[in-house]
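Hey, can you fold this one?
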Amino acid sequence: MDQQPFASQASPNRESAQDSSAPTVRRRHRWVWAVVLVLFGFLFYWAISQHNKTQAAATGGGRRGMMTGPVPVTLATAQSGSLGVYLDAIGTVTPFYTDAITAQVTGVITAVHYREGQYVRKGDPLIDIDSRPYEAQLAQAQGILERDQNLLAEAQMDLDRYKVAWQKNAIPRQTLEDQEKIVLQDQGTVKNDQGTVQYDQVQVGYCHIVSPISGRVGLRLVDPGNLVTANSSTTLVVVTQTQPITVIFTIGEDNLPDVLKHSKNTPLKVEVYDRTQQHLLSTGKLTTIDNQIDTTSGTVKLRAEFDNRDGTLFANQFVNARLLVNMLNDQTLIPSSAIQHNGNTDFVYLIADNKATMQKVKVGISDKGNTAVQGIKPGDVVANSSFEKLQNGSQISVSKVRLPSASDAAETDVP
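Sure. Predicted structure:
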């Protein structure tokens, strides 16, 4: 009973407090929304500004080109000429002959006649092995041969006497026949002795090692005083033929029919370049095509021969080989840099009366910066620079210096 008046008195006060705070909350909400709208406005203005700047940067060059008048371009004239059809391959320089010489007799090395890296000719002395034991054996065999030759001569004289005596019935037939067999036995002995002498002569010859081919000697592998063993795996010296020399490379089996077709009459030309494909090392000719295709890789090996008179090609050297399969004549040639691409379409800008006209072309093979095309004729002038500014119908002015293109600028930006 006592609390009801108190409750009725407190309720009006609470309501009045709420009514007084409500306008304050609403005013705060309005300020927050106002700030948010201002921020969104600034953000929208910044986005529009960035978009306009980007679009202006993308189109500013073309607009400046249009505003400054004719586009300065360098020109190129289409020429009539020949262009080779090449097959590029990776090759290895391979000598015709490489001889790893080992000892065929046992003995001590007495002399090394070559210098490391020296070019030797066939028959030049390389290494000497102590030949005295083998010379002694040879002298012994020669003495035995001389003795048996004299025994044969004696038996032959006796046979001649027996024949005369037999004709006079002075000896029996058996004596004559026995002497004939003794002569045959002595002949066999002499032949055996001759074989022994020849064998000992060969052994003495093995003591004086000479170069079996003309070529370059490698590093020295043995020294005087070293003991070598006959028929061992120890290599005494390596001689590699370098003039002429060959390059072995591979091509795909799909290209083999063209190579066989064009190599029937004349040997095909082969060029070899260094690892960077920038420097021509030598020019030779195709000599051999392997007799089978490698089924694991679908390739076939080819061998080309090079004179290598200047010694540019070195054994086991890595090279890039270019095989000239065919030569196309009466082709319309323009610089490869003058050809532009738009998807599957290739085109050039024909220049006539200081005006650029877009002309579609059909691109053929390329070599050394030139490309064979169809769609224009020799003598036509095409643009060779400023493609980012050119359009169909653009007015041009001739420039002797090629202006940097957009692609060039992009390349220079790359660190």
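DSSP finds five helices and 23 strands in the chain. Let me know if you want another pass with a different chain boundary.
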